[in-house]
Structure formats: structure tokens, C-alpha cells
Amino acid sequence: MSSTINVRKDWDTYFMDIAYMVSTRSRCPRRHVGAVLVQGKKLLGTAYNGAPSGVPDCSEAGCMIAEQYELAVVDGVEQMVKKERCIRTIHAEQNLLLFTDRIDREGSTVYVTDQPCWTCANMLANSGVQEIIYHRAYPKDSDKVNWLMEQKGIAFRHMTGYVPPEQTAGITAP
């Protein structure tokens, strides 16, 4: 008779799994993002990306893409880089900050499926969190965001080797 031993997930995997499950609420056709706020081992809030409550979302009204250009150094050469962002959508990190209290964020950890963009990183840097853990990289803003987190003394970790829950397969962009 063989017995199966269930291996207990570590806390980072547990909370990132929850962030991915939260992302399933998103109706964004471009990317499903989820975020969770944790104090110690206590889950204090969840959020996902989407249009403001009561407003048609991207799946109903289409994405509102804004193009922005930014001077960046690529392989040692300055060049203009085009960025496209949907401005209909409130990012998961922004919603998390809107729907949680500052006192709960002081010294807390945010788990987010995707590395925060520059705007979200700025907001998180001023929110009281002490650590941000993400899974999928966001190369467009990566250098600036890493620099900001270092300046603010916020632990900023990329969960490499993490595999999202099977239930979220097919809803997340690579």
C-alpha cells in the first residue's frame, strides 16, 4: 500500500497562487493581473486590473490604447522607445491601494503576478509596503523600477521558477 504525502506550499507560493486566482476576475483581453496585500501571514486585500466599477470594460467596449514615447538606452545606444498602454484599465496594484487602508499597508508585502509598471511602482513606493514580490517580468520599466525600489529600501523580488496554478492557464499572456 502506497501513501501519498502532500507537500505543503511555502508562503511565497501560497500567496502568489492567490494573486493568480484573483487575476481570473480580470476581463482585460491583453493581460490578467492580480495582487494581494499580506501582513505577516495574514491576507488583508486582493485586487485585479479592470475598468472602474460600473463602467464598460475592455471586453465590452474595447481597449483604449495610448501611445507614449520615451528616450531609453538600449544596448548602450539612446533611442526612442514606443510604449502602448491601455488607459481604460486601472492596474491591479492601483486597485489594491484604493481598497486597502494605509495602516494595513505599513510594513506589509504585496504579491503581484506581474512586475509593476513605473506608475504603479511609484504608488507602491509611497504606500508603506516593505516588500514587493512578482512573477512575470515587465522589461519596459524594469531598470527604472528596480532603481526606485533600491532607493526606497523596498525589498523587490522576482519569483523565478514559480509555476502558476493550472486553473489560471490560458488566461495569462506569456
What portion of residues is helical? 25-40%
Structural class: alpha/beta
Low-confidence sequence ranges: none
- The helix/strand order is HEEHEEHHEHEHE
Separation, N- and C-terminal Cα atoms: 41 Å
Mean pLDDT: 90
Looking at the overall shape, the CATH architecture of the domain at 11-48 and 89-168 is: 3-Layer(aba) Sandwich
Strand content: 25-35%
Strand order of the largest sheet: 2-1-5-6-7
CATH level 1 class label of the domain at 11-48 and 89-168: Alpha Beta
The major sheet is characterized as: 5 strands, mixed
Number of strands: 7
* CATH homologous superfamily descriptor of the domain at 11-48 and 89-168: Cytidine Deaminase, domain 2
Radius of gyration based on Cα positions: 17 Å
What is the third-level CATH name, the topology of the domain at 11-48 and 89-168? Cytidine Deaminase, domain 2
Identify the overall geometry: globular
**So how many helices?**
6
Describe this structure in words.
With 174 residues, the chain is an alpha/beta fold. The chain is built from six helices and seven strands, in the order αββαββααβαβαβ. The strands form two sheets. Strands 2-1-5-6-7 form a five-stranded mixed beta sheet, with helices on both faces. The protein has a two-stranded antiparallel ribbon with strand order 3-4. Helix 5 runs parallel beside helix 6. The N and C termini lie far apart (41 Å). The model has no long low-confidence stretch (mean pLDDT 90).
